[in-house]
Specification:
The structure holds two protein chains of two kinds. Chain A is α+β, with helices and mostly antiparallel strands. Chain A contains three helices and 13 strands; from the N terminus they run H-E-E-E-E-E-E-H-E-E-E-E-E-E-E-H. A 13-stranded antiparallel beta sheet of chain A has the order 6-5-4-3-2-1-13-12-11-10-9-8-7. In chain A, a hairpin with a 5-residue loop joins strand 1 and strand 2. Chain A starts with a helix and ends with a helix. The N terminus of chain B is likely disordered. Classes of the chains: A alpha+beta, B mainly beta.
């Protein structure tokens, strides 16, 4: 009897398992294709205006500048310089992300001229009081998630792959993310974030894609809506530049002290 | 690209961008402060309430494809019932090449990792007239060459011109226990405040470990005190020539920060007030709970112990003390944060309770609230005993631009 049950269970699971392994492989391949198409951008600089909105619609604005450096074989490096609000002006956040081990992060406090190494265990906490968590703004390395292809869907008239990705790194605030990837440019159009209780927490939509250096697509407006709090954040990017000649030296602790 | 931005544009815009991402132009803050003391002053000319306005304008100019930066930062505090203070906090030029940087002028340099005191941080003089916690520093004239290699950064300093420590005015609260003779100062070196000091620091990080090894030769930033001779109680600060080796390290492992600072200082042969050579250390740890219950709130627990071989002859209050603190960051739109802590004298029973809270108001203002309580301060504690009567709270409202 037990054997029969086992056989039935195995038979019942078999097609699903085959499908699941296949879906996992396909999901990874889509993510890898997106990653491959974005190789070779070297470095970029941009200004980003963050608009925070609460439930009542009150807005507050933060202006930052961001510089990023592609690191072949490891996670990217980035510096975010805060320009407003004025009381945090000159504060700079340096991040060396890693594909497999935890990221290295430093904060420069201009009033004290002090550089502080900070814990990168804060993944799910809000970045600058916004609806973007630290893990949302950090470099999205391929190895940071496991993937599963779910289905094809049309979003705003565009054909997309819908994939599920599950964070492989520790202390993520998410149980899973659903990503709608544009089949033409292999960039996300929408991401749904599910909290640790598996409830829908936030939706991120990408708008105004623009191509740089005839190759690299960047969204110039991102909208993050928190369904549980009613708050939202808009990231508006401008003055994107690629291959400006930045090097490792522009992303070390000495560079942090030079930020103005 | 950068040269297209004209000077007049810079003057008009409080914040201008160059294409590579440096901001420049005018910025700064103006802040009003009010300090209220719980107990009536002991000295005749002291008050229970002090108010002041501080101005801190800054200007930055960047050129040569971001290789060169000029910066100026001035400071002035206008007090209602005390003399005003001013300082040039920064007047500097930086030239940055691929594997070296040269930085000249008046600057501020911070070394170290701990919170309760900053043992290895020796380049800049402390301004105790500005705040009694020793966190405010005066600008230091210098020439600094930084050599930046795979093995870390080597900073070499020539420090030209010594800045005397600033103490609170005699009519201010939280004053020095013994009256300091106005304007009188003694130096061990015949060159007095023109003695040229030298410093070097090697700093690097490997994985989770950030560390620095430093050396300083020159005029001690911490004075000893000798009787003035002409008045019974009055003292005169004396600045010795010292050698100091410093070491600081921080390990950042998941939610933990492990910190250590240590110095070995060798004083001058004819020093009158201190041991010739001694060790001092501060060690501590910090544990953070991030995004508690998905609220975005962080809570950090901080503990540090300090030890100074000189014991009661220490020129700092940290001869054998412990500090415990709780840091709270709401990570809200107003960047609300608070730090409550206690410093406990392991030898006596003295305790200093402190509270500091900050919150942005609108986009351009920030409100700060500070409070200190001094309890069981022993008359044997050489540097704290005069604080027993000085419990206070302080409000500061700053406008930032």
């Amino acid at each position: 009897m037990q054997k029969i049950v086992l056989v039935i269970v195995v038979l019942a699971l078999l097609p699903f398992n085959v499908f699941s392994a296949d879906a996992g492989k396909r999901g990874y391949e889509i993510a890898k294709e997106a990653d491959d198409r974005d190789v070779g951008w070297k470095d970029s600089t941009a200004q980003v205006v963050m608009t925070l909105r609460n439930k009542r619609g009150d807005e507050s604005v933060r202006e930052n500048r961001m510089r990023s450096l592609e690191v072949p074989g490891d996670g990217d490096k980035s510096i975010i310089i805060f320009d407003s609000p004025a009381d945090v002006k000159g504060t700079a956040f340096l991040s060396h992300t890693h594909a497999k081990k935890s990221d290295d992060q430093w904060l420069f406090l201009p009033a004290l001229k002090r550089i502080k190494r900070i814990s990168s265990s804060n993944k799910s906490g809000p970045f600058m009081g916004s609806e973007f968590a630290y893990e949302d703004i950090s470099s999205q390395e391929l190895e940071k998630y496991s993937y599963k292809y779910l289905k094809d869907e049309v979003v705003n008239g565009k054909d997309t792959f819908v994939i599920e990705r599950i964070p492989e790194y520790k202390k993520s605030g998410y149980s899973k993310q659903l990503v709608w990837i544009d089949k033409e440019i292999y960039q996300p159009l929408k991401v749904e974030f599910y909290d640790r209780k598996k409830t829908l927490l936030k939706t991120l939509t990408y708008h105004d894609y623009k191509q740089y250096v005839n190759k690299y697509w960047r969204s110039l407006r991102m909208e993050m809506n928190n369904h549980q709090t009613g708050k939202s954040t808009t990231l508006a990017w401008k003055s994107y530049e690629f291959q400006t000649g930045l090097s490792d030296r522009d992303f070390d602790k000495n560079a942090l002290k030079r930020m103005r | 690209m950068f040269r297209a931005i004209t000077t007049s544009t810079l003057l008009v815009c409080s914040l201008a961008y160059s294409q590579l991402g440096y901001s420049e132009g005018f910025s700064g803050n103006v802040s009003a402060k009010m300090s209220m003391f719980k107990n009536e002053a002991v000295a005749e000319n002291q008050d229970d309430l002090y108010s002041s306005i501080a101005f801190q304008p800054k200007y930055t100019y960047v050129w040569d494809n971001n290789r060169q930066i000029f910066g100026i930062e001035l400071f002035a505090r206008v007090n209602e019932s005390l003399p005003s203070t001013t300082d040039i906090r920064e007047l500097s030029w930086i030239y940055s090449a691929d594997d070296w940087e040269i930085r000249g002028g008046i600057r501020k340099v911070f070394w170290g990792v701990t919170e309760s005191q900053h043992l290895v941080d020796i380049i800049n003089q402390t301004d105790f007239s500005e705040s009694f916690d020793g966190e405010e520093k005066l600008g230091q004239p210098m020439l600094n060459l930084a050599i930046i290699q795979d093995w870390g950064t080597l900073d070499l300093f020539v420090l030209t011109g010594f800045r005397e420590r600033r103490f609170p005015d005699e009519n201010a609260r939280l004053g020095f226990p013994l009256p300091i003779t106005n304007g009188a100062v003694k130096y061990e070196s015949d060159s007095e405040d023109r003695h040229i000091d030298y410093a070097a620091r090697w700093s690097h990080y490997i994985g989770d470990w950030d560390f620095g090894l430093s050396y300083f030769y020159g005029t001690n930033r911490e004075p000893g005190f000798v009787p003035s001779g002409n008045s019974a109680n009055h003292v005169v600060p004396i600045y010795e020539i010292i050698h100091q080796v410093g070491f600081d390290v921080q390990a950042t492992i998941e939610n933990w920060l492990w910190k250590l600072e240590a110095i070995y200082r060798d004083g001058a042969k004819d020093a009158k007030s201190a041991e010739h050579a001694f060790l001092a250390t501060t060690a501590g740890l910090e544990y953070s709970f991030f995004d508690i219950d998905n609220t975005g709130v962080d809570v950090g627990l901080v503990a540090e112990v300090s030890y100074d071989e000189r014991g009661d002859a220490s020129t700092t209050p940290f001869q054998n003390d412990s500090m415990f603190g709780i840091r709270l960051a709401l990570n809200d739109e107003q960047s609300t944060d608070a730090l409550v802590g206690v410093i406990y004298d392991n030898d006596g029973k003295g305790k200093i309770f402190s509270m500091e809270a900050n919150r942005r108001i609108g986009e351009d203002f920030k409100l700060t609230l500070n409070g200190y309580l001094f309890t069981d301060i022993s008359s044997a504690d050489p540097l704290f005993y005069s604080y027993g009567n000085e419990d206070f709270i302080e409000f500061e409202l700053g406008y930032y631009y």
